[in-house]
């Protein structure tokens, strides 16, 4: 697992003063992304406070050398795929070099300051060309809660505790935070209606998930062993797996891997690296008494000891009425990534176990990360029991599912004793009318 080094020092400060104690992007984070300044081309950058440092420009201006230079040079052409493909060593070298550039007292400050952009004036794009997107179902509490709605007597199918369940999602409709999407149409068949009809989704929902970026891939027919799976993970983001529950329920239960899901997926645009998250690694929770031990190809002692992430995840709702009144978004739930039943390495090992080749820039969704308590449920399906118990909002409004103009916002926060806290940035989108 990843050793902590000087880049994790909580006392480290940046000459970019708004980065110090920044909720998401202090100097200990340094997530990678693709941005475009006003009227400028897409380019690779690193988030520091409310600013973005232009990576390619750092290379051109001689601020980087060796592996760090190689990493920055790979991040050309408006996607990070080639950088992700390089794996951990150049990525770490880049992190170390960037801390050297951005730390208070750095001799590079005068040069680097000219290569900073105000993040608020830039457009954030998808950080990589996503070849394939796979959505898992690793949240046990979510699987239980959803299973209960559909099959009260047998909420979990017998394979759940053996197989990391997933389905192949749609890469073309993955969009970065801030891009609104249109309410989907589809076949709907409410209970009591004999035949389905076609029209706008009535039960539009979100799913709170962790996104996982694949770095180096594998050759077809060459599975990734669980012990080296972490070397294939390039980073993390927040992921909203928007779900049309009425379409989903009619087309396929309970996962709904087609039109109930494929219309939009929103991600936070910054790739938070495994190095940045190293201080927040914790042991995978012991399985409940009586649960089977994972099969050997999914078991690794080191992965069990440090394969989970202690990451607080929040969902907030901003309705049009709240927006007009100037109200703050209302928090719907608060969960933690540590509640996943499978580690990220187990997802990688399982995905490739049949010989399927993963490629740099592939994206995984963890599955909805609900906790065991009512205030930690990661979808409206669970919070409102499929619309039967509407939520009451502080301004008197109620919600079964999402209405036009509603905006859903996700936030992540990693905290650990002796570490500087980091976040993931914005993952938000507004529902447009059909
Ligand atoms: Mn999902």
Q: What are the key terms here?
A:
20% helix; 26 strands; globular; Fumarylacetoacetate hydrolase, domain 2; 7-stranded mixed sheet; 434 residues; 6-stranded mixed sheet; alpha+beta; 2 domains; SH3 type barrels; binds manganese (II) ion
Average pLDDT over all residues = 96
Count up the domains.
2
User: How large is the count of helical segments?
Assistant: 12
Number-wise, the strands total 26
- Label the structural class: alpha+beta
Extract low-pLDDT stretches: none
Q: Summarize the amount of helix as a percent range.
A: 10-25%
- Straight-line N-to-C gap: 47 Å
Strands ordered across the widest β-sheet: 7-6-21-13-14-16-8
* CATH level-two architecture of the largest domain: Alpha-Beta Complex
Amount of beta strand: 15-25%
Whole-number radius of gyration? 21 Å
Plain-language structure description:
This protein is α+β, with helices and mostly antiparallel strands and 434 residues long. It folds into two domains: 6-125, Fumarylacetoacetase, N-terminal domain (SH3 type barrels, Roll); 133-432, Fumarylacetoacetase-like, C-terminal domain (Fumarylacetoacetate hydrolase, domain 2, Alpha-Beta Complex), CATH 3.90.850.10. It is built from twelve helices and 26 strands. The chain has helices spanning 55-60, 66-74, 81-86, 88-102, 109-113, 140-150, 245-251, 274-277, 301-306, 320-325, 344-352, 380-383; strands at 32-37, 43-48, 51-54, 116-118, 122-125, 133-136, 166-168, 174-176, 181-182, 185-188, 197-200, 204-205, 208-214, 233-240, 243-244, 265-267, 281-282, 308-309, 311-318, 330-336, 363-365, 391-392, 398-399, 407-414, 422-423, 427-432. The chain has a seven-stranded mixed beta sheet, with helices on one face. Strands 9, 19, 20, 24, 25 and 26 form a six-stranded mixed beta sheet that branches. Helix 2 packs across helix 4. The longest helix is centred in the N-terminal third of the chain and has 15 residues, at 88-102. The mean pLDDT is 96. Manganese (II) ion (MN) binds at residues 135, 207, 209, 241, 365, 367-368.
